[in-house]
Specification:
Chain lengths: 313, 448
């Protein structure tokens, strides 16, 4: 193993963490307009137009690939020609043994062109991105390969505006977390003393994500309601659905409702199938907003007719 | 991003980025399930059948097979072409569908590429062992040797095959690995055990998803797709030339290259459907591999199946019209000779059966698609059997006419390659993300 980090060693960063690619692109554009130099962005998937927003040029790998391809064609031709024409001509079916054999060499030339292009380009890609087996990864956020998008600004670089202003800009652009003086770390070489801390952190994040993946509740796009807005939604729900008056059905029988969501529903006063069956589009919206349930899911899973069926059982 | 309301979302269930990671890493981070163990053990048993049959072949010689002086290719080359054909869907899906910007490929390309690689492994076994002395297999390569300067014969399609298939295997492997790197990095960053940290850390090659790397990565993926597209077409073209450049009636036709390529895509999609229907059921990936995906794939089956059917009929008409009695005899013998049952099985499975996909119900009913996909696989095996055996068993010289039936060793090797294929596939499904997380995350908010 090469125990060496490549890029970020000894550097400190101001990082803004986003959970939405469009917000990230917008933040990059705003910061660059203000003359802030951005070190790089880190995303779990290729975000289109991010490279343009960062002002990166299209990679020149294509030219390298073309040269490798040419090299492959030449090797294919040289190989076949030197063996079957120069060194040991083979007379097959009385055909001539000179350059007119070229047509038989085409498949070989073709295959070697492709082989050389593919391998040449991939090797260049690894070299250019400093990627090699066993190199330390430089991460600025533990979930940057999962669901977080990181905007990194090098603290040692001269910036046009003070750091505090950059941070407040990031805040305005919708960064979910902002950290100053963040050093790069890695996950695969964590020393033992940090290990337990990391485990606890990871267990916590995964514990949050697990039940959600079952009920498909979104973690992003959360609508945060103020107390008065909550009151308003609750009154809508109460007005249309009425009171359960102590009755209680097993709401888990509705597909899409798990034990956790059932208790959430109970907490806003929904206890029976009858209540669910009375839902109007307005109520559904209110329920979804107040419980952060996935928008549109209640209608898509057709809770109302599910509830009617369950009532009649 | 343009999206019309008539289109269905590519990923259902309202997944978020975190949900995608969680769902797809689940089988890797948890203990294997009972169904995984059951499948894996059956695959291992079949793999043992392969080991026994091949060991017996090497120990005793090719005489353990029933191939003979007339039918010298038999089941062996039938199986070779069958597996190579299956190996075509993976690269087709990831390369050609990438160039056509078909976003539905993203849920299925990872497993299809894996399937490609394992199918090519299986395919390679057949010609190599058919040479008789497997330990001399390096003779197929253009190496300086002990017999003076005798080199390989560059006029021969069999040598082209060596180049085409080894290039195809290595380029597919590279393409697959490049696609895996960001996902391996995701698993590395979630790893809780030392071993997982080490191995995924090793193969992630320090990937951290920087925008600069992604820029280059996308260029690499695009160029690899660009060069893999002609590569896919070339491989089966060259395989078909093994037949087409000979002078055997029934083989010596110019229609072979396009017809073999269409057949390869047809059989490849058949196998992809078989596997994915199992994967989405067993691993519960119905939100990622939706009926939309199945429908798109069945349309490809319908198209390529019809091309193959058209080729069968064209081939027959051309033979009838040629005025060349050996060619005419070869085709009459296929239809009404001793192997007519194989011919009509092929016609039913490849020409008739896929036509059910004109119906929307058939295209969207998983259990029905599963049955048809198996029928397609059977049909495509019989296609190669018909081409090889019926053409060879009636030589120009009636004194050389023979019948050919496989021996237990040949059957064992064929069954055994399924063991190899599924052993590899089960290991893949346990240790690698079956769906490309990074790509899926780009489209969870899109429609098809």
């Amino acid at each position: 193993m090469i125990d060496k980090s490549i890029l970020l060693e000894d550097k400190k960063f101001t990082v803004g963490i986003f959970d939405d690619s469009e917000k990230l692109i917008h933040a990059v554009e705003t910061l660059r307009k203000k003359g802030v130099k951005i070190f790089d962005c880190y995303t779990p998937f290729p975000v289109h137009h991010l490279d343009r927003a960062l002002g990166y040029h299209r990679s020149n790998l294509t030219i390298g690939a073309f040269i490798c391809g040419l090299l492959g064609s030449l090797s294919g031709f040289t190989l076949a020609y030197s063996m079957n024409v120069v060194d040991w001509p083979m007379i097959i079916g009385g055909k001539p043994t000179d350059i007119t054999l070229f047509t038989s060499f085409i498949p070989i030339i073709f295959e070697l062109t492709i082989l050389f292009t593919a391998f040449g380009m991939v090797i260049m890609f690894f070299a250019r991105s400093s990627m090699v087996h066993g190199i330390k990864e430089d991460l600025l956020d533990r979930r940057q390969t999962d669901n977080h998008m990181v905007l990194a600004i090098d603290n040692s670089e001269e910036q046009s505006i003070p750091n505090s202003e950059i941070q407040s800009l990031l805040q305005n652009e919708g960064a979910i977390t902002i950290r100053d003086n963040q050093a790069a770390f890695n996950t695969s070489h964590t020393p033992d003393e940090e290990e337990e801390e990391v485990h606890a952190e990871l267990a916590a994040t995964q514990a949050v994500a697990k039940p959600l993946s079952k009920t498909s509740t979104p973690r992003e796009d959360k609508v945060v309601l103020t107390d008065s807005e909550k009151e308003e939604r609750l009154s809508i729900i109460k007005a249309t659905l009425g009171d359960a008056s102590g009755a209680k059905d097993d709401l888990k029988l509705i597909s899409g409702v798990g034990p956790k969501y059932e208790s959430t529903l109970n907490s806003i006063g929904i206890f029976t199938f009858e209540q669910v069956s009375k839902m109007t589009p307005e109520t559904i919206k209110a329920v979804e907003e107040i419980t952060n349930y996935f928008p549109g899911r209640i209608e898509r899973d057709d809770w109302i007719s599910q509830a009617i069926k369950l009532m009649n059982k | 991003m343009y999206s019309a309301d008539i289109r269905q979302p590519l990923v259902t269930g309202g997944k978020t980025y975190a949900n995608v990671t969680e769902d797809i890493c689940r089988p890797i981070e948890n203990k294997p399930t009972k169904s995984w163990w059951t499948g894996f053990i059956i695959a291992i048993i079949l793999l043992l059948v392969l080991v026994v049959s091949l060991s017996w072949t090497v120990w005793e010689g090719i005489g353990t097979w029933n191939v003979n002086k007339s039918v010298m290719w038999g089941w062996d080359i039938t199986n070779f072409v069958f597996w190579v054909g299956i190996g075509h869907a993976g690269t087709l899906i990831s390369a050609i569908l990438l160039l056509f910007r078909q976003k539905w490929r993203m849920s299925i390309n990872r497993s299809a590429e894996a399937m490609t690689i394992f199918a090519v492994f299986c395919a390679a076994i057949f010609p190599l062992f058919h040479m008789g002395r497997i330990w001399m297999m390096y003779w197929t390569l253009p190496l300086p040797n002990a017999f003076g300067s005798l080199w390989v014969n560059f006029h021969s399609p069999l040598l082209w095959d060596v180049f085409a298939i080894s290039t195809y295997l290595s380029v597919s492997l590279v393409f697959w690995y490049i696609g895996l790197i960001p996902d391996i990095a995701t698993i590395r960053d979630r790893a809780t055990t030392k071993a997982r940290k080490f191995w995924y850390g090793l193969f992630a090659m320090g990937w951290n998803g920087s925008a600069k790397s992604w820029g280059r990565y996308e260029i690499v993926a695009l160029i690899l797709a660009g060069i893999s597209t002609p590569l896919v077409l070339s491989v089966h073209t060259i395989v078909s030339m093994d037949f087409a450049t000979s002078v055997i009636p029934g083989w010596h036709t110019t229609i072979f290259p396009p017809y073999f390529v269409a057949g390869a895509i047809f059989s490849g999609f058949g196998m992809v459907l078989t596997l994915l229907l199992i994967v989405r059921q067993v691993m519960n990936y119905k939100d990622y591999i939706t009926t939309e995906h199945l429908e798109a794939m069945t349309k490809v089956i319908l198209l390529t199946g019809s091309i193959v059917g058209l080729a069968y009929i064209t081939e027959f008409v051309i033979a009838a019209y040629s005025g060349y009695e050996y060619e005419q005899y070869a085709f009459a013998n296929r239809m009404f000779g001793p192997y007519a049952w194989a011919y009509w099985t092929m016609m039913f499975c490849n020409l008739v059966a896929p036509q059910v996909f004109w119906s929307k119900w058939a295209r969207t009913t998983p259990w029905f698609i599963f049955i048809i996909s198996i029928i397609v696989n059977i049909g495509m095996w019989f296609e190669r059997f018909v081409i090889i055996v019926t053409s060879l068993h009636r030589d120009f010289l009636p004194s050389s006419w023979v019948m050919y039936h496989a021996s237990w060793v040949e059957v064992g090797i064929f069954l055994g390659t399924f063991g190899l294929f599924f052993t590899c596939f089960f290991l893949f499904a346990k240790f690698m993300p079956v769906i490309n997380m990074a790509e899926i995350k780009t489209i969870i908010k899109d429609k098809e």
